[in-house]
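Hey, resending since the last one bounced:
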Amino acid sequence: MGTGKGVLDMWWGAVVINLSIRAAYPMGWTPPHLTGVDVPKW
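The structure tokens again:
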């Protein structure tokens, strides 16, 4: 059951980032480099 934990953590990280972006930009505007399914590489 622990084999997919890294992927799950990465997925949850992307969800948290996405929610943070939505909270930061309530009008729904998203910076072009943050669109898509790729996790931003900061």
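The longest helix spans residues 5-24.

Sorry for the duplicate.
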